[in-house]
Amino acid sequence: MIRTHYSTQITPEMDGSSVTICGWAHEIRDLGGITFLIVRDREGLAQVTLFKKTIDKNVLDIVRGLSRESVVAVTGQVKKEAKAPNGYELVPMSVTVLGKAESPLPMDTTGKVDADLDTRLDVRFMDMRRPGTKAIFRIRHLVLKSVREFLDREGFIEIITPKIVATATEGGTALFPMTYFEREAFLNQSPQLFKQLMMSGGFDRVFEIGPIFRAEEHDTRKHLNEAISIDTEASFLDHEDVMVILENLIVYVYSNVAERGTEYLKTLGMELKIPDLPFKRITYDEAVDIVRDSGEQIEWGDDLTTESEHTIGKTIGEHYFIVDWPTKIKPFYALPYENKPEICRAFDLMHPRMELSSGAQRVHSYELLRSRIEEQGLYADGFDFYLKAFRYGMPPHSGWGLGLERLIMTMLGIENIREVVLFPRDRRRLSP
Ligand code: ATP
Ligand code: MG
């Protein structure tokens, strides 16, 4: 390896020592007697200073001939310099061009010129060089790491289930069909059925972080056609138990990002407010009342529109759960209350701006599940591989699915979900 340090690992106290950094030619400023090359690596910026009087002529020529955004390796001596980034500059012994950049560049990376999101996504590799974009994906990494940490500590086992499947999970959402040799198959819309099989298998608590595919035609700022879902399923717990796990997870993730992601939050110019526990719980009926009070029309049994979600979100003003949903608008696997089967043990976790997660205690009786599937107009025989697991000892169980992108966009106050996905898939975008 040629690199000895990231730009931020070098300190003024290292004055006099020799180091090698690798990165992109962020800026070249030629002032005649003195030339500055600012090198940008993953972690930050380093100033390379060339004094015309003392510098090797070959090194100066290389730097003067450099095109912006070319990749270079710079070996030089550290010199304490209060005015430079991180309090030091490098006086180079050698500068090597490792990857030349053509000009003009397809987009500006300094943040001085605003590019629209479409342009940025077309050349995402360039967009990633911007500090703001990099900060989002560093935070995304922290979020994923925190989720794994938290669920592992809570006794959840990480699983990965198939994404190529023979049947729809729950009807409703449109699927992407694909050719599977001589048969038709689909991209999975949710790991729901598989994680429930794990409960019959005795794994007790499982989680999966993986893609879900939804052939939704709409083009909104909160829907993707390929999203990442954080899914859990746990035996011998009811819906209320898993709501507690979910709210604790959210707070754990926020706290971790606030603690370990300070630098990235600063780059994004934001301060993270950690939500208070426990989150408010309101019933579906109470949600309907809030919507009606605002003058909007809603019938009992209607799903909440985006507008209704905003109205309730404004009223509550922080994270909250909506519980006790009408059975008919929740999937067949949500468990109806025994004494009031028109509502079920399902919940949605809401951020004031949008839904983050849906969950429920599940039906675990074979007979009830079969009739629920049929009641929802689905063909029960198509679910044979799933239903079988309920006939040979299925424990009561509950779980939820949490959208990773929605968690991040609401946490960071980002308007468009595409900002928090490297290469988003939507109605119009399939490349890169
Ligand atoms: P919505 O009504 O907001 O479209 P949903 O109720 O259809 O969402 P669920 O099937 O309940 O979504 O999925 C669980 C979670 O997965 C959602 O709360 C959301 O965070 C995330 N999710 C679902 N579909 C998408 C999508 N198309 N794009 C991004 N995230 C999604
Ligand atoms: Mg939902």
From TrEMBL:
Cofactor, free-text remark? Binds 3 Mg(2+) cations per subunit. The strongest magnesium site (Mg1) is bound to the beta- and gamma-phosphates of ATP and four water molecules complete its coordination sphere.
Q: What is its EC class?
A: ligase
So what EC number does this one have?
A: 6.1.1.23
Sorted alphabetically, the Gene Ontology cellular component annotations on this record are: aminoacyl-tRNA synthetase multienzyme complex; cytosol
Keywords associated with the record: Aminoacyl-tRNA synthetase, ATP-binding, Cytoplasm, Ligase, Magnesium, Metal-binding, Nucleotide-binding, Protein biosynthesis
InterPro entries linked to this entry: Aa-tRNA-synt_II (IPR004364), aa-tRNA-synth_II (IPR006195), aa-tRNA-synth_II/BPL/LPL (IPR045864), Asp-tRNA_synthase_2 (IPR004523), Asp/Asn-tRNA-synth_IIb (IPR002312), NA-bd_OB-fold (IPR012340), NA-bd_OB_tRNA (IPR004365)
Q: Which family does it belong to?
A: Belongs to the class-II aminoacyl-tRNA synthetase family. Type 2 subfamily.
* Protein name, UniProt field: Aspartate--tRNA(Asp/Asn) ligase
Q: Which organism is it from?
A: Candidatus Methanoperedens nitratireducens
Q: What is the organism lineage in this UniProt record? A: Archaea, Methanobacteriati, Methanobacteriota, Stenosarchaea group, Methanomicrobia
